[in-house]
Amino acid sequence: MTKKMKKRLYRILSGGAILLLAVSIEHLMPYSLGNLLLIVYLAAYFTVGGDVVKNAVRNIGKGQVFDENFLMGIATVGAFFVGEYTEAVAVMLFYQVGELFQSYAVNKSRKSITELMDIRPDYANVKRDGAFVEIDPDEVSVGETILIRPGERVPLDGVITNGNTTLDTMALTGESVPREALTGEAVISGCINLSGMIEVEVTKEFGESTVSKILDLVENASSKKAEAENFITKFAKYYTPIVVICALLLAFVPPIVTGGNFGSWIYRALTFLVISCPCALVISIPLSFFGGLGGAGRAGVLIKGSNYLEALANTQIVVFDKTGTLTKGVFTVSKICPADGFAGDKLLETAALAESFLNHPISKSLLCAYGKEPEQDRIGEVEDMPGFGVRAVVDGENVYVGNRRLMERQGIVSPAASEIGTVVYVGVEKIYAGYIIISDEVKEDSAGAVRDLTAAGVKKTVMLTGDRREVGEVVAKELGLSEVYTGLLPGDKVEKVERLLKEKPEKSMLAFVGDGINDAPVLARADIGIAMGGLGSDAAIEAADIVIMTDEPSKIAVAIRISRKTLGIVKQNIVFAIGIKVLVLLFAAIGLASMWLAVFADVGVCVIAILNAVRALKVPENV
Amino acid sequence: MRKVFILEDLDCANCAAKIEADTGKLTGVNKCSVSLMAQKMVLEIDESISGTIEADVKKIVKKYEPDVEVTAK
Fold this sequence. Notes:
The complex is a heterodimer of chains A (about 625) and B (about 70).
Chain A: H1 3-28, H2 34-61, H3 68-81, H4 85-116, E1 124-128, E2 131-135, E3 145-148, E4 158-162, E5 165-168, H5 170-173, E6 179-181, E7 186-187, E8 192-193, E9 198-202, H6 210-221, H7 227-258, H8 262-275, H9 279-298, E10 301-303, H10 306-312, E11 315-321, H11 322-326, E12 327-338, H12 344-355, H13 361-370, E13 379-385, E14 389-394, E15 397-402, H14 404-409, E16 422-428, E17 431-442, H15 446-455, E18 460-464, H16 469-479, E19 483-485, H17 490-503, E20 509-514, H18 520-525, E21 528-532, H19 538-543, E22 546-548, H20 555-589, H21 595-614
Helix pairs in contact in A: 1-2, 1-4, 2-3, 2-4, 3-4, 3-8, 4-9, 4-21, 7-8, 7-9, 8-20, 8-21, 9-20, 9-21, 10-20, 12-13, 15-20, 20-21
Chain B: E1 2-8, H1 13-24, E2 29-35, E3 40-45, H2 53-64, E4 69-72
Antiparallel strand pairs in B: 1-3, 1-4, 2-3
């Protein structure tokens, strides 16, 4: 509890006690002096609401007329004048309770959300003059070596120079399975070191490191406001003056016209003033969005602003980049087809050995599938033939590994492969030995992601790829995508997205999902740019509106669900709060609502709206 | 240039909106956003007012919420 809140609590408790005293005096000693009773009530009133009255007077001096202090002050002072002492004090008491609860709830959810994102490292153990000293991560420079013990947070981005360990990336990615990190591999700040002691060479200064970038992004997200937030601020601006004017009219017009009793009309007008504070709305809307942003962050989805969270709910078209987004972007051997008289393992071994000196994605995937260290002494002369493949002497024989044109050039007769992917033909001397298919693997959750999106109401799922038509169409079919465009150059992708943007229905949103590598222009052009696997990729974090920290496309549907839920809560709160207030205003105008009901309409609605808003923190499981 | 102020103990949403509106009207302020939840004010201002902006913001905040502590980040 903050100091301000404690002070308020103290006011409520002591004021409440004096109120009890006043009420008992009134009931036990009905013949006591009226003035004494008024004095006790006034004492209770000023104990509870002295600061409100003081603020009201001071604010009027500053030209601040319609603030809540003034409204509460005038309503309760008015109640004193019409002889409703108990109500005057009680209304002030409830108002203070409501205010206290409001600051408590806001504080509490603010804390729970910032704790979620509390990935800021406190210190770094840096090697200086041969010994490790504990200093602020800010003071460590690039190239220095830091020591990270088990249980400590990785303070800066770097590369492991000594030691192996596992890292908990939960706070960054929402992924609960620890990630293995070995010597020579990169580590990202914000992770927690779990098992082993490691030494890390720092590659980025603290201000440039992942943890700073993420914190910056999260902290600034709530300053990019959603339309619903702006609506409510505008609404509040007009609501209060209108209600106050209505109250004034209500106090004087009917009694003058009908010649009725001023007292009862003034009481109704005062009731109006109690309801005129737009607190419930104004507080619950940003609180809901903040909760939604926090919940998404916990699921590993960083959203750069409430406006994007709001836009996500209207997503009708999701455009995917293929490589690295729906597929792993890693090429692996998917099929080995040896010719008659050759064994599969032998074919792979021959190809891997022949390609072992080349630094090419294809040779890497061959070696990876081979799984053993290539024996150097079995390989003789190697000749790289760009555009064709490679000729290498393996075990004393001439081996040709490459495309079909290489086979033709060498006069080797080979069949045409029908499989999808890159086909690597192998020939030994003049004999055809078989072919190996290397293809990009579809991510485990890609099909599920497309299904979830469709279930979440996305009308069109589109895939853009630079790949050949056969490859693209097979992947699109496998995943159940509604449209696919193949053979695109990077520039074509922007053009395609622009065309889709033109065709889409008004108000619906188009989201583009890419891996942040050379699709920054498309990310920027789409209504919502979503970058995948944001960990470590600065370009992605910069260009996108939403960053998915893990490599899972299924998180897009999760983000849409969070967005829909948050917006649902926002709408409930707007309708509920405005509805109750208007209803009570009507009741008050015809004399059916007491000031008690009015206090409920103000404080009670506020409390309920806040409790509802806090729900946004929880990530919904289903659509 | 961008300028960030921390508004400690800001807990009245309506006041936050008023602070945002008034600060946004200052000459040299191109954009102002007050986040109640982050207790922060993010400003986009002209270089020319960088010396006076802090005092002006403090004055506005004091007007609506005298208990709020303003610090430049």
